[in-house]
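Record 1 of the preview.
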Amino acid sequence: MLQLFDALPEGFLQAPASALEGLLGGPSLIHLAGRREPPLFVSILLHGNETTGLDAVQQVLRGYRGKPLPRALLLFVGNVAAARQGVRRLPGQPDLNRVWPGSPLPDSPEKHMAAEVVARVRSYGCFAAIDLHNNTGLNPHYGCINRLEPRYLQLAALFSRTVVYFTRPRGVLSLALARLCPATTLECGQPGSPGAAEHAAEMVDAALHLAELPATVPSDVAVYHTQGAVRIPERYTFGFGDGGETGEVVDLQLVKDLEHYNFRELPAGTLFAWSAPSSGAFFSVEDNEGREAAADFFQRDGHAIRLRRPAMPAMLACNTTAIRQDVLCYLMERLQRSDLYAG
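->
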């Protein structure tokens, strides 16, 4: 059940992520008054092991102890049960960033809770929405948007001049809220990385001070459009190595330093993996229409699997659990400025 608060619970500003379930009792929506309305919506801990958002919000709110916020804040604290154990999600739980309105997942208590949050955001008429996340692999800090509109770009650009535009997967929080107000997802590097919480806190504080978002496209943003989500089918085993030299018997052996490809414009022919001769293993790629498109992006070269066309990956990580629970990566292309309209 969604817990509702109109003040910060005692101890929230000092609590680690692992203590929030005991403090809050479950996923929570906390409304804090401010000098301006409507509120800024901020969400943290949709994934229980992505703790930078909590650290950032605590930093911001400690700075206003005894003083009014510049703008009201509507804070959603997500998967506190997973946070208690330091994991993305618990066994049997749906991914809390896949259950929002528009999700293809089956009905669940989490989907009902998510629908209630969106209904309350709609009733408040939020100024903007910020969803704070971490990456598992080596990635720069970047913002994501779901609409190529000036105010959405301006919001993301408060955090980074690198912006990713995506429309899939369905069921993510920012897609649901983008129908109601400018929304962005912030990818804040790895949990605990130096400066990550401070960077996110600066952006949240800046958004709290805004009277409005400019209706012009920022002049210096680099915008990348996701073209496909790359996954490893469940039936295939995988590992990381040097093309069979490690001795590990797996269906797919990924290049061991694969995460160093993140946010690099890779040419056609770039090596991603080797397939065991007897397995026939290959990637699965879901394109923006929801179709299987692996053959559009990858090709076989003997036992090697290489890019068929130029692409830029994001969210590659040498972490088997993260790959199984989410994706191997997203493949992107850079948009030209003419693709960004100012309407």
